[in-house]
Amino acid sequence: MFELLGIPPQALFGQLLIGLINGAFYAMLSLGLAVIFGLLNIINFTHGAQYMMGAFVAWFLLNSALGLNYWWALLIAPIVVGITGIVIERLLLKRIYKLDHLYGLLLTFGLALVIEGLFRNYYGSTGLPYSIPPQLAGGHNLGFMFLPNYRAWVIVFSLAVCLGTWFVIERTSLGATLRAATENPTLVQAFGINVPRLITVTYGFGVGLAALAGVLAAPIYQVSPLMGSQIIIVVFAVVVIGGMGSIMGAIVSGFGLGVIEGLTKVFYPEASNTVIFVIMAIVLLVRPAGLFGRAR
To answer: Is the domain of 99 the same as that of 206?
Structure first.
């Protein structure tokens, strides 16, 4: 059928794979944003810079005297970047929780510019190579397309992380406590729960998701100070479409919009850079709270 339209099947499935790869990163980054906004009501514009920091931590670990590989980076980078996020939350963000969302957006946007500027000052704007781990090198010929092992790993791993996060927040007592702490912190604190510490850990976890996505992206996109700013606007559009603060909305919209963007490159390449924003405009007109969001 596609050959009748002048579209080779290899091109179609190739773009579908690229769409799933992009969707995996959209989902993980928008998931972190959704966790932070849904539980802390902070629009975290620093998220793109923290995604970039995760990739740089992986690069530092590999090129340091320790020579820690990709698998160690998957564990260490989210912890390191998450700790920096906790420091930011304790020193800066906690002072603006009771203010309008605009203050949080401006503060985190300024922090993002500072962090990106520091990395550009030391490493320039060109990308640094980060090799695919040997265990995930190569690929499989499926007949209709060649599937690289690393890209398949990114899709499966990111989907597992996203669904695991959704389960913890929506289906466990810990998640119920987190949600209750944002709705009525005074009542939750009366039960002996340290709400400020809970909020801090939640922010660190959301930042850690961004860093984890950065480690996954390093072998595909290279490590660059600009990698966060190049993706964060699209990720915010994904979050708006899914619904601000909606965990499932972030996951479904991330993967779904990545696939739509990839298929658009096949059928109408000129619109591939704008299709997500067109969808965002339509969704906001029809359902201002987003596809999975709830009116506040």
So the answer is: yes
